[in-house]
Design a protein that fits this description.
mainly alpha, 0% strand, 184 residues
Length: 184
């Protein structure tokens, strides 16, 4: 069973996601390293933002780099800007954010593949079931599978909101607009 589903065995048990997002820190503090690695490193990214110099408007070179980035993001090239256009703090911020996004993407793809296989297996077992007891047991497994998928959806939405929030703070602080290339 997945690490994400271990706290939500039946679909009716306690969810690892709190009712209020303000309790996220309390929730993640009790998790092991395998679970905390599944969330954006928001605190560390925020520290990089605080180390950046505050800038109201993007510099002329950054505007040209942003136009290049928008063109590159639409052509499938994910390079945000030439490395010499970014400060050391911005480069560290972008690198950490890219690492988090790659980690999230790998995790989500793995879970998606596991879910497809599990659903196909359940479907085959349902078609082969001959008694009502077997169907009831398979129904419980299907409910568990649904609960795991709902948790995966909540996890992805929570991380998406964190990425949007940190990019908004970055854009406000640095003047370099990263939201459009990342969220396009």
């Amino acid at each position: 069973m997945s690490a994400l589903a271990t706290t939500h065995q039946t679909g009716w048990g306690p969810s690892p996601l709190p009712a209020a997002c303000c309790c996220l820190q309390e929730t993640t503090e009790g998790m092991g390293p395998e679970m905390t690695d599944l969330f954006v490193r928001y605190k560390e990214l925020k520290k990089y933002l605080k180390a950046m110099k505050k800038q109201k408007q993007p510099a002329a070179g950054q505007q040209a780099a942003m136009q290049h980035d928008e063109d590159a993001s639409h052509s499938g090239n994910q390079g945000l800007a030439p490395e010499d256009a970014l400060s050391a703090e911005e480069t560290a911020f972008v690198n950490m954010l890219n690492e988090d996004l790659l980690r999230f993407n790998r995790f989500f793809i793995d879970k998606e593949e596991d879910s497809v296989i599990k659903l196909q297996t359940l479907s085959d077992r349902i078609n082969a079931a001959s008694s009502m007891e077997q169907l009831q047991a398979l129904r419980a497994e299907l409910v568990d599978c649904h609960g795991e998928m709902v948790l995966l959806l909540h996890w992805s939405l929570l991380n998406y909101a964190a990425v949007v929030k940190i990019l908004k703070k970055h854009d406000k602080r640095s003047g370099l607009l990263l939201r459009a290339p990342y969220l396009a």
